[in-house]
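Issue 218. Parser rejects a valid record. Input:
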Amino acid sequence: MRKTELRIRLFGDPVLRKKAKPVKKITDYHRDVLSAMSRLMYTDSGIGLAAPQVGVNETMIVVDIGSGLYKLINPKVVKKEGSQVTEEGCLSVPGICIKVRRARKVLVTALDESGEPVSIEAADLFACVLQHEIDHLKGKLIVDYASFFEKVRIKRKLKALRERYSHEKLSQSETKSCKLQL
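Output the parser choked on:
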């Protein structure tokens, strides 16, 4: 199989709002997509990426907060605990940072790329990233967490992104506005 070429989809692309479909049978295609997603995440200095962000409507994510790469298929949050608020950015909504309240600890179940079940207990940043990426699988974006005032503040940027989501690659300065690029 050829090397899978993917690109990050920007706010306004309808694929970002679709609910992703569960992977029924893991194939070489899925492993290739996960590898391509990982390369793209690292290239764009992200710490997480979901398949819908690259135009693949299946429930797969990759995450690396600096302690190793996780490639997860059909991930689900099965337990939440506590609360934290973190300012988040998103590779699909570049240049915008939103304060998001999420669980401080989560238990996530998934399959690895070999089809083996995995269970991950995550806290703090790792929990935040897993929840962010799993939101993408449901068609949910960080802008959905924005307060009324934040929505007013970012309205022009969102309109500009929507108008050019499929036409051009953004410059580095446009993509790096938050500490957390998920």
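Fixed in the parser; the record now loads. Strands lie at 48-50, 60-63, 70-81, 84-88, 98-102, 105-111, 117-123.
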